[in-house]
Amino acid sequence: MKDETTGQEDAVQDAEACAEALESLDRISLDDVAFDDSSVDVQDEPEIEAQPDDQDTGDVEPAEDEADHEDTESEADDQPGSDTSEETILLDNLPAEDSLTRELPGLGSAPAVDETIAMGDIPLPSVPSAREAEVRHRKMSPKRRNLMVAGVVAVALVAGGAGYAAWNGYRQEQAAVVAANAHTMMSVQIGVHAAGLDCSTGSKIPVQVSGQDSDGSSVSETLYVDEHGRGIKLLPGDYTFSIAASPIAADGTIYTVPTTKAQVTVKNDGQDLRAQATFKLKVPSADTVTDDQIDAAAKYAEEGGASSAAAAKILQQAAITRRDAAANAVSASEAQSARDADARHKATNLYQLDIPVEWYGKVATWQNGNTLCIYLDGDTNTPLVTLVAVREGESFTPDEGDTVLGAVSLGNGYTVYASGPVYPYVVAQTINGKTSEPVSKYPMDTAIELVELTTGNRYTYSQIKNDLVGKDGKADAATKLETDYLAQIMLPSIKAQD
User: Fold this and answer.
1) Which of 371, 474, 348, 467 is nearest to 417 (CA)?
2) Per-residue pLDDT for 356 more than 80?
3) Would you list the DSSP string of 71-102?
4) Phi–psi pair at 200, nearest 5 degrees
């Protein structure tokens, strides 16, 4: 029963000590938890050693001894003037050998500057042995022991609280950075290819942006980039990029707008998105540009692509001028082609044909009934080919020195025969002196032109002269060259007259 009462009293004292320590933690100083060890060192050790070794420890009643011991300590605590005061040694009474300027292990003797010890100089404490620590623990009153435990717990709580506060502060700081980034506009770069575009003199490229930012808000807007793909600023999020319209170059160039779209995720500032979003704007034929394309490009230029509305108007006019000039040039070319085709078109009562484009401007014609002669311009004595219509069943004999180069059936009872000199052979033989005709018959420039016209520039004069027909004096190879060429460029155009 006495043991239970003592245990309850100890528990109550422990609780009171913990409460007192927690409430007055900021008022606790080192002096509150310090205690005098001199009495333990001087008085307690003999008592323990005085016990005979052969005493039966089983006969000792620990509970009563501890209770009596605790009572004795309580009485000693209640008496302000205890015997320990007699053991207090004044610093100025210490013998010289006990001076605080003791020799420390490994450091040597510290020089004594003055025998007077300054306030605040504290002697180095000695480390108690295990036995001394056990004795001090037994001699310490429960209240003081509980107070010390409570102090240690309180210090641990304070240290733990400080660590938690630091970690929590770091987390809050990081969360604040993330939150700040989520609401910070990020610059990104995309890839664009537009030949000849300089946005410093022309308009920028309008990019349609749609998607959702990090706040969950929907985004749909038009942003403008230069020829390097720079100029887009967005909050972090997921977006779709596409080209809204063509920019306008300084010379009025309008580009074909690509239909591709790019899905991107914006994460940080300065992000390079060229691998995910690259757009190629091609340059179409200027005459094919429509008014709608020019109007759309001008609209976006005025809304943000150009430096001002006036600059956008100037670029729009440049685009119109460029398109109109190209369209006029095409029209003029088509008109000229029509005139040329009309000039190349020849007809008789039975058939019609087109003079080869390669011959146009270099040849002339004469006509006699259903006979049509095409000769070298300015030289009626140098015919390239003569066309004659012959009724089917009748024979055809070419003029002396000419060779039949091809024939076309008109389907109306007539056949058109094409005949003429085999110039690749004749020229080569003449230049090589193998014919009875004088070399001056074909001046060099005429000889070269005749070979080019009858072979379509597929062979050079030197090849004709030296390699194909000039050495063996045979006309078969040269004839084949000319007949093949005429069969490709002129004979297919010969048709029956409507």
Assistant:
1) 371
2) yes
3) HHHHHHHH-SS-GGGGG---GGGS-GGG-SSP
4) -75, -25
Cβ(350)–Cβ(342) under 8 Å? no
Conformational region of residue 108, where left means phi above 0, alpha means psi within -120 to 50, and beta covers everything else: left
Residues 177, 246: Cα–Cα separation, whole Å: 39
- pLDDT of residue 93 exceeding 60: no
Size of the chain in residues: 498
Q: Which residues pair with 211 in a beta bridge?
A: 219, 239
Q: Give the count of beta carbons closer than 10 Å to the beta carbon of residue 150.
A: 22
- In angstroms, the first-to-last Cα distance of the chain is 143
- Give whole-number Cα distances, 363 to 343, 404, 453, in Å: 11, 20, 10
Token readout for 258 is: 């690509």
Q: Residue 90's pLDDT is what?
A: 45
Tokens of 89: 């040694």
Chain-centroid distance of CA 108 in Å reads 68
Instruction: Tell me if 298 sits within 8 A of 319, measured CB to CB.
Output: yes
Give 80's pLDDT tier (boundaries 50, 70, 90): very low
| SS3 annotation, 259-279 | CCCEEEEECCCCEECCCCCEE
Can you tell me whether residue 193 is helix, strand or coil?
Answer: strand
Give the three-state DSSP class for 306.
coil
SS3 at position 419: strand
Two tokens at 34?
A: 């310090």
Residue whose structure tokens are 């390079």: 272
**In this predicted structure, what is the pLDDT of residue 192?**
97
**Do 286 and 323 meet the contact criterion of CB atoms below 8 Å apart?**
yes
Tokens 């022309």 label which residue?
202
Give the tens place of pLDDT for each residue, 324-355: 999 999 999 999 989 988 999 999 999 999 99
Question: Tell me: the pLDDT tens digits for 234-253?
Answer: 999 999 999 999 999 999 99
Across the range 12-20, mean pLDDT stands at 58
| pLDDT for residue 6 | 56
User: What does the alpha-carbon distance between residue 227 and residue 286 come to, in Å, rounded to a whole number?
Assistant: 20
